[in-house]
Amino acid sequence: MEYYNYIKSLHLIFVITWFAGLFYQPRLFIYHIEASKKSAPAKEILEKQLKIMSRRLWYIITWPSAILATIFALWLLILMPQWLFESWMLVKIGFVLMLFAYHLKTHQIFIQLQKDQINHSSSFMRIWNEGATLMLFAIVFLAVVKSAIHWVFMVLGSLGLIVFLMLAIKLYKRLREKSTQDEG
Predict the structure, then answer these.
(1) What are phi and psi of 147, to 5 degrees?
(2) What integer is the mean pLDDT of 157-164?
(3) Whole-prediction pTM
(4) Which of 49, 60, 130, 161 has its C-alpha lying 20 to 30 A from 150's C-alpha?
C-alpha cells in the first residue's frame, strides 16, 4: 500500500487532463460551426486549423487521459476492493459511466465535424459544453464527501446549476447579438 498515494495522484492527474479535453473540445466545435458560416477564404483557413487543433486535443490529450484515468481507477479498486460495497462509490461509478457516454457522444460529434458534417448549432454546443461540468461536480463531491445519501441534494444542486448555466448562455447570446447589431 506504500504506492497507493502515487497511483491516486496519477489517477487524479489524468482525470484533470481528461476533463481539460472534455471542456475544450466542445469549445473548438463551437468555433468550427461558426467558421463554417464565414465566407472564403476565412472559412477554409479556420476550418482546416480547427480540425488540426481538435484532432490533436482529442487523440493526444483527451483519449489517452481517459484511458489512463480508467487504468489507475481500476488499480485503486484492486487495492481497495471494499469501496465497491460503498453506496457512494456505486453512485460515483454511475456518474463515471455517464461521463463515458458523454465522451463517446463528443467523439461522434468530433468525427462528424472532421468530415464537415455540421449537425448541431453553436447554441447547442454551448449547452453541450456544460455536460462535463455537471459530471465533474457530481464525481468530485462523491469522491470527497463519500456519501450517496446526499446524492439527492447533489442532483437538485446540479439541476439548479443547469438552470443557472442555461440562463447565462441565453444572456451571453443576447449580449453577443446586441453587440453584433451595434457594430452593424
Answers:
(1) -145, 120
(2) 75
(3) 0.82
(4) 130
